[in-house]
Amino acid sequence: MIIQVKLFAVARDLVGADQLQVELSGTCTVETLKEAMVQLQPNLAPMIDFMRIAVDSQFATADTQILADSEIACIPPVSGG
Amino acid sequence: MIIQVKLFAVARDLVGADQLQVELSGTCTVETLKEAMVQLQPNLAPMIDFMRIAVDSQFATADTQILADSEIACIPPVSGG
Amino acid sequence: MVELTELPINVQAVSDSVVSGDSGAVVLFLGTTREFTRGRQTESLDYEAYPEMALKQLQQLEAEARERWPIDQCTIIHRLGHLELAEASIAVAIATPHRVDAFEAAQWIMDEVKQVVPIWKKENWADGTTQWVHPGMDTPPQK
Amino acid sequence: MVELTELPINVQAVSDSVVSGDSGAVVLFLGTTREFTRGRQTESLDYEAYPEMALKQLQQLEAEARERWPIDQCTIIHRLGHLELAEASIAVAIATPHRVDAFEAAQWIMDEVKQVVPIWKKENWADGTTQWVHPGMDTPPQK
After folding, report:
1. Hey, how many other C-beta atoms are within 10 angstroms of the C-beta on D70?
2. CA trace torsion B21, B26, B30, B36 (10° rounding)
3. Is B76–C121 a contact, with Cβ atoms under 8 angstroms apart?
4. Total domain count for chain A?
5. Number of domains composing chain C
6. Which end of chain A has the lower number of beta carbons within 10 A, N or C?
C-alpha cells in the first residue's frame, strides 16, 4: 500500500515537501513506517527517534497498525503555547 | 489624650458612625484601646477579638503603643479580592 | 502598579499594562461577582475600603512579590462601590519571563489580598437583606 | 471552546467569553513573544500547526480539564502564522466558582499544550537566521 505521511516544521524543511509518499508491504506498524521513511530520506535519520507518528489525529505507539486509509502524520517535538 | 478610631463595615454599622472618639490616659496600647472601645460601645464586645487595630496604616500587635498623633483604625476581618 | 477605582475594570487595559516583549507569560486573575454562594442568591455587592491603608498594603504586596519572583510587570486593581453580577471586583496581572512564576505570584497576591488588605464586601442578597462579609466572624443579615 | 486563528488574540473577547455570574474566579493566561531567550534576540515568530489534530487535542484537553476541575467556562485560542514581539501566541481562560481550581486548570492546560498539541514555533532571530523549535532535539539555525 502507498501511504502519504504529512510533514511539519523541521521534517518538512529537511524533505523539502509537506508530504512523503511511502510504499509499504504486508502488515505495517509505526516502527516499520519510520524505517521506510529513513530509507527514503536518510537525512531524517538523526531525528526519527524524536518524531512521534499520529494515526488519524491521535498519537500512535510503536506497534500501532497502519491501514491503507489511515491519515498519517510525522510529529516532531511540539513547541506551541 | 483623645483618639479618633476609624470604623468600617460591620463596626461602623454597629456604632452608627464612621469614627469613635476614645479618651485614653497614660501609656496606651492596642489592648487598652480595645477595652476602652468596648466600654464606650458594649455592642462591639462580641466582635472586638476579631478586630485588628491599624496604627498609621500598619497592622499593630496587642502591645503596640498608641501616640496622640497616631492614625488609628479598627479593621474587621477583610473580604476584598 | 496598584489602584483602587470606582469604575468598571477594563480587562484589555489591565492586560496592555503588563504585556511587553520582555516577558513570555502573563497571568491575569479576575475576581467576579458570583450569583450563588452556598445556595444563597446575590443580587449585587458593595465594596468599601480604608483607602490609604489598602493602597499601602497593595504596594507592599507588589514589592514583596517582586522580591520573591522575577516579575517584569505587575498590576493590581481593586474595584470599590456598587457591583452588579459578573462584574470584576479585582484584577491581578503579572508578566514574567516564564509562566510558572506568573501563576505562583498571582496566586500568592490573591491569597494575601484576602488576608491583609482592608477592603470589605457587603452582600445584597436577593431576599432584600444585606450582610457584611467578615470571614471567621458571625454577622447576621440586616434589613 | 477551542480555536486556532491567524488573527491577533483579543484579550477582552477572551475574557468576555468566560465571565458570567456563575463563576467567582477567572484565570486568563497569555503566552507572549519574548525578545530575548538565553541572550539571543528574537525579531519575530511563526507558528505552524497540524490543524485538524491540534483542534482535536485541544478539545480533548478541555474535556479532560472539565473532568478534573469544576469548570464553568473554558476558552483556549492558539494563534498561527506570523507574530511580532509582545503579541500573544496563546490565550487560556478558565472560569470556576473558586480561584484555586481556575489556577490549577489553566496551569495544567498550558503544561499539556506544550506536550501534546501539534503546533510548532519558528524563531526568526535578529541575526537573520531562522530556527524551528523542537524541545529535546537539536535543530541548527538555517539561513
Report:
1. 12
2. -50
3. no
4. 1
5. 1
6. N
In a domain, A81, yes or no: no
Its pTM stands at 0.95
Interface residue of C87, C134, C143 to substitute, partner B, most B CBs within 10 Å:
C134
Q: What is the CATH number of the domain that holds B66?
A: 3.10.20.30
Judge: B76–C132 Cβ closer than 8 Å, yes or no: yes
Residue A66: inside a domain: yes
pLDDT in tens, C45-97: 999 999 999 999 999 999 999 999 999 999 999 999 999 999 999 999 999 99
Tell me whether residues C50 and B80 touch, CB distance under 8 A.
no
Q: Is residue B81 part of a domain?
A: no
User: Is residue D143 over pLDDT 80?
Assistant: no
Pairing state of beta strands A2-6 and A72-75? Answer: parallel
CATH number for the domain spanning C21: value is: 3.90.1170.40
Distance CA A50, CA A76 (A): 6
Chain D nearest CA to A48, separation (Å): 10
C49 interaction partners in chain B (CB closer than 8 Å): 80
Whether B80 maps to a domain, the answer reads no
Which domain covers residue A30, as residue numbers? 2-75
Domain limits for position D80: 2-133
Q: What is the DSSP letter of C72?
A: S
Q: C-alpha cell of B9?
A: 463595615
> What grid cell was written down for C125?
442578597
ipTM: 0.94
Cell 538555517, located at residue: D142
Residue D141 included in any domain: no
Count Cα atoms within 13 angstroms, Cβ side, for C98. Answer: 7
Contacting residues of D for C22, CB less than 8 Å apart: 34-36
Chains D, C in contact: 3+ Cβ pairs under 8 A? yes
Binary contact (A79, D89; C-beta < 8 A): no
Which helix (H) or strand (E) segment holds residue D60: the answer is: helix D51-68
Q: Is residue D52 part of a domain?
A: yes
Alpha-carbon gap, residue B56 to C50, rounded angstroms: 12
CA distance A60 to A63: 8
Instruction: Kindly determine whether residue D132 and residue A50, on different chains, have CB atoms separated by under 8 Å.
Output: no
Residues linked to residue D28 through DSSP beta bridges, in sequence order: C28, D93
Q: Which chain A residue lies closest to D55 (C-alpha atoms)?
A: A57
